[in-house]
Design goal:
Immunoglobulin-like, 4-stranded antiparallel sheet, mainly beta
Length: 105
């Protein structure tokens, strides 16, 4: 059993993650929501429990927040509108098993 888990872990460590383009939505005019999905590279297979890091550049100042993808690969990260606003540059990266991938929007 441990051998199988180790093999699966090693296999998953080779899988590169892809993140759908980050999307921003205004919520209550005070919060910006960055959301998307984490997939295995080249597939539509969702990746659960990936650490997702979003960095927003607002008036030249970077603000970073993190989240975790759900069992269906979805993530949602909230920013205070004073630190990230609609139209700002957002870069999103994900990490799982030491492998990372990212996208900007």
């Amino acid at each position: 059993m441990k051998e199988e888990i180790k093999k699966v872990g090693m296999l998953l460590s080779l899988v590169l993650l892809m993140i759908s383009l980050a999307s921003a939505t205004i919520c209550n005019m005070q919060t910006i929501i960055i959301y998307g999905n984490v997939y295995q590279e080249g597939t539509s297979n969702p990746v659960a429990d990936a650490t997702v890091i979003a960095t927003c550049t607002h008036y030249g100042v970077n603000s970073t927040h993190t989240g975790t993808s759900t069992s269906d690969g979805r993530y949602r990260i909230l920013f205070d509108k004073r630190k990230c606003d609609y139209g700002d540059k957002v870069v999103v990266n994900s990490v799982k098993y030491g492998t990372s991938s990212g996208n900007a929007g």
